[in-house]
């Protein structure tokens, strides 16, 4: 077959439509985390990832996140609509267009919110695998939305949790997450921010714009993961925790551009740029040591290469060819 006829056939092929239920069926949280780690093990440098484009709107925010790596390229168009939950609608909306890296022909169109719900905990799972103490068993989880459920599953995939304490703004949502945790065989209950004092792991996945707890209470050797914000003026952790912690990020450039958890203490003079001890890629490659005698904080802002890694893994799990022909 000629190149011309092959290209014509590629143009005529409609991209696969992959909805939320199928994404969940095709890729487990563990497989999603492995897909993220595989990209890093393959030598991809997250510092090369294009910055996300943010467009403020009356309803919230529109995000455009393009990426390319290996055999694939792609772009996520995501909406953040803070008023949606009271309407019974998801706060995060959008779609992901996966492209063949060689021809840029469409391969698949994925549910963007479901992809984000899977990819963010996957990134956290990779960080926890390298940062959390091997015997970490007590988790304090802030939040009770889709990301909280995903992060509970992610934490259970990498550590044998014995107790989960849920701290939620809405008691009924917190109670539902506690009940879900118990179905997974974990002792669970509602708690308060001061419960971080006894935690081995603290995971923050909220829409908070101010610190959720007193960072002085976090034990040396505990691991904190904060994923809730990518805005320079919003944070889930306080300056006290940042001063005490070895900080790890997905990308230094992205963190210093978007992570309020770092930027606010930096602007206060509470920390310096050297507070960042390493990146996710350096952890995966074993190029950075993990501080044994201080808290470890992983601050995620969410990056386009992560969406691409998981979207490509979903596409491969469908058994479809890598090329749009």
From TrEMBL:
InterPro entries xref list: NAD(P)-bd_dom_sf, ODC_Mu_crystall, ODC_N
SUPFAM superfamilies: NAD(P)-binding Rossmann-fold domains
Gene3D superfamilies in the cross-refs: NAD(P)-binding Rossmann-like Domain, ornithine cyclodeaminase, domain 1
Superkingdom, taxonomy of origin: Bacteria
Protein name per the record: Ornithine cyclodeaminase family protein
């Amino acid at each position: 077959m000629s190149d011309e006829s092959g290209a014509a056939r590629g143009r005529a092929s409609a991209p696969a439509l992959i909805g939320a239920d199928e994404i969940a069926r095709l890729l487990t949280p563990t497989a999603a985390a492995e897909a993220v780690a595989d990209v890093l093990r393959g030598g991809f440098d997250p510092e090369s990832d294009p910055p996300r484009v943010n467009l403020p709107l009356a309803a919230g925010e529109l995000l455009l996140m393009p990426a390319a790596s290996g055999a694939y390229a792609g772009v996520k168009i995501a909406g953040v609509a803070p008023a949606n939950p009271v309407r019974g609608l998801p706060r995060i909306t959008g779609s992901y267009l996966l492209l063949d890296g060689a021809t840029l022909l469409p391969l698949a169109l994925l549910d963007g919110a479901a992809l984000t719900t899977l990819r963010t905990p996957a990134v956290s799972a990779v960080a926890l695998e390298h940062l959390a103490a091997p015997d970490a068993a007590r988790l304090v989880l802030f939040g009770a939305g889709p990301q909280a459920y995903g992060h509970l599953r992610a934490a259970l995939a990498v550590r044998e949790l014995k107790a989960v304490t849920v701290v939620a703004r809405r008691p009924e949502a917190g109670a539902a997450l506690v009940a879900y945790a118990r179905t997974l065989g974990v002792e669970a209950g509602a708690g308060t921010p001061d419960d971080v004092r006894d935690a081995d792991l603290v995971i923050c996945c909220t829409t908070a714009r101010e610190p959720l707890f007193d960072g002085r209470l976090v034990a040396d050797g505990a691991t904190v993961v904060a994923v809730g914000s990518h805005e320079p003026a919003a944070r889930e952790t306080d300056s006290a925790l940042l001063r005490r912690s070895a900080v790890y990020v997905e990308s230094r450039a992205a963190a210093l551009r978007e992570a309020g958890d770092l930027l606010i203490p930096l602007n206060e003079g509470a920390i310096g740029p050297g507070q960042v001890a390493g990146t996710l890629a350096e952890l995966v490659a074993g190029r950075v040591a993990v501080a044994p005698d201080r808290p470890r904080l992983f601050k995620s802002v969410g990056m386009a290469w992560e969406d691409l890694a998981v979207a490509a893994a979903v596409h491969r799990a469908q058994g479809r060819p890598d090329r749009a022909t």
